């Protein structure tokens, strides 16, 4: 039987997207984690991770093994949670609004993990781009992109991601590579947004910031579809670096104007101050923060 501690450390490396970050996250020397994962690979007789000086990625068998490791880790945490919440059981209903552009597969994986840990909670998850009213429409949590409008609600930062402009080699060969922000106006763009979203990208950060317009080829509220359309040579797209990391490493997508890095975009969990941070809201937000990165990383590695 594989070493459970090694399996947990392997899962931590994947969640943290690297040995160094895993070492910081769990407070263990990087060398110890590396040695334990190497021992696990030797014990199993397979390579779980592909390593080089700059990148870390899962092998095909590593991807499958990671899913089982996460299940085992979740079960162990569930057993621990039974003890921790004996006197304060997490239960009741939880209604959550999530933007349509979020990966539904990713959210499904998150919710499955959450329900395994907290089986007494009843989830009501709605994908919507409407500006939902937390109290009036009965939502406990709304996941929202920043910047947020001032309100009496409480907003907790869930994560932030670095956006990057990308295009396929095929598109750039046919249409050329823009050398300046102004030249983007001559190119087809794939816009992630709603019917109200304008074909504008915010390039740069701080005092070196500019808003650039482009010719909208497609507008869609699915980040997965934006990535696929970019891979299929239909135009330039703005994606999170985490989402297209594998494509950049393989050369399937190329960065556009990397000398104009953009401000990270932020995602918040918003809840009503009247709720006084009910236990089920608190544990869901904690779980979302802890698990989102690992699920996003896994789905990205799986393509």
UniProtKB/TrEMBL annotation:
Taxon lineage: Bacteria, Pseudomonadati, Pseudomonadota, Gammaproteobacteria, Alteromonadales
Keyword Ribonucleoprotein annotated: no
Family of this protein: Belongs to the LysR transcriptional regulatory family.
GO molecular-function terms, A-Z: DNA-binding transcription factor activity; sequence-specific DNA binding
Protein name from the UniProt record: Transcriptional regulator, LysR family
Family matches, as InterPro entries: LysR-type_TF_proteobact-type, LysR_HTH_N, LysR_subst-bd, WH-like_DNA-bd_sf, WH_DNA-bd_sf
Chain ranges of the HTH lysR-type domain: 2-59
GO biological process, one term: DNA-templated transcription
PANTHER family, per database record: HTH-TYPE TRANSCRIPTIONAL REGULATOR, TRANSCRIPTIONAL REGULATOR-RELATED
Source organism (scientific name): Shewanella amazonensis (strain ATCC BAA-1098 / SB2B)
UniProt KW keywords: DNA-binding, Transcription, Transcription regulation
Gene3D superfamilies assigned: 3.40.190.290, Winged helix-like DNA-binding domain superfamily/Winged helix DNA-binding domain
